[in-house]
Write a structure and sequence with these properties.
- There is one protein chain.
- The chain is an alpha/beta fold.
- It has a domain at about 10-145 and about 170-200 and about 255-270: Vaccinia Virus protein VP39 (Rossmann fold), CATH 3.40.50.
- The protein is built from 9 helices and 7 strands; from the N terminus they run ααβαβββαβααβααβα.
- It has helices spanning about 10-20, 25-40, 60-65, 120-130, 145-160, 175-185, 205-210, 230-240, 280-285; strands spanning about 45-55, 70-75, 90, 105-110, 130-140, 185-200, 250-260.
- The chain has a 7-stranded mixed β-sheet, sandwiched between helices.
- Helix 3 (about 60-65) links the parallel strand 1 and strand 2.
- Helix 2 packs parallel to helix 3 (about 60-65) and helix 5 (about 145-160) packs across helix 8.
- The radius of gyration is 23 Å and the shape is globular.
């Protein structure tokens, strides 16, 4: 069975291309790339070949090299680089990876695979491409990302239109993403969330940045007619009324969900079999053991 088509992948590529040709807003990808660099530094091994997957800019590739843990980086993205950036690259879609089995040591993806229609399939392909004990690390937009804009748009359309159209893409929960890593066959999966709040003078400044990042509405079921001016103005008014700080500036939430997991290898830690422990937890804690059915003594 084919996965449901939620995201218009061709539209995403066109919008990323348009953003790259203009004046792109790079504060978010730059922030995430810095975090990637810091997350790699404590790892006590090096990776001969890394793939930077889906990045519309070279921020991720540079962060991989600057971490000191990666020897060589190849970029795989849906668009050709707009200019030379010093990295070998190839055009590829995150849903169909041109990588051989056990061919790379690390795959990193920043702010890209949240817009993949078949995320379980993409994760399975990434796991297949990794050599044993290879690392997958990614940052996705998730959870409550742009919740303020979503609520304001929905309220404005409820008041002024016949119905609510999906205006902000759905984002996955960190717990669900962790389960997908396990389902794909990864070992030692870890997920964590950084809530980043960006502040704007008004809702239109946020919308401008979203266009400059190529991150405007990519859903297949989006309304095809332009948003009415009255609805847009009401949404901006609602945003200002509900999500302004004391100084009048508006909050925009970005939930940055980090995933990391490893291709299985015999050297990795494994949980002990039930009943294989050689000492009691009560002894380690210096406490008395209470058997099933017994009551604690006062």
């Amino acid at each position: 069975m084919s996965p449901p088509l939620i995201f218009d992948r061709a539209l995403i590529r066109r919008r990323l291309s348009r953003a790259a040709q203009g004046s792109p807003a790079e504060f978010l990808i730059a922030h995430v790339a810095d975090d990637l660099n810091e997350r790699l530094k404590p790892i006590l091994r090096r990776f001969p070949l890394a793939i930077e997957l889906g990045g519309a800019t070279s921020h991720g590739a540079r962060a991989l090299l600057e971490s000191g843990k990666v020897e060589r980086v190849v970029r795989l993205a849906s668009l050709r680089p707009s200019g030379p950036d010093g990295f070998p690259s190839a055009v590829a879609d995150e849903e169909t990876l041109p990588l051989g089995q056990a061919s790379v040591d690390l795959v990193a993806s920043l702010l890209s695979i949240q817009a993949v229609n078949d995320l379980p399939g993409a994760l399975a392909q990434i796991k297949r491409s990794l050599r044993p004990d290879g690392l997958f690390i990614a940052c996705l937009l998730g959870g409550e990302t742009l919740t303020e804009l979503r609520q304001s748009m929905a309220e404005a359309e409820t008041q002024l239109s016949a119905g609510v159209s999906p205006r902000v893409a759905p984002f996955a929960d960190a717990r669900d993403l962790g389960a997908l890593l396990q389902r794909a066959g990864f070992a030692l999966p870890v997920t964590d969330v950084e809530k980043l709040t960006v502040r704007y003078d008004d809702a239109f400044a946020l919308m401008h940045d979203l266009r400059a990042m190529g991150m405007t509405n990519p859903m297949v079921e989006r309304a095809r007619e332009p948003l009415r001016r009255a609805t847009l103005l009401r949404a901006a008014q609602t945003y200002a009324e509900r999500f302004a700080d004391l100084d009048g500036r508006l909050r925009a939430t970005f939930d940055l969900v980090w995933l990391s997991a490893w291709a299985p290898h015999e050297s990795q830690q494994r949980p002990l079999r039930p009943g294989s422990a050689k000492s009691r937890l009560a002894d380690a804690l210096g406490a008395s053991e209470i058997k099933a059915g017994e009551k604690a003594k006062p």
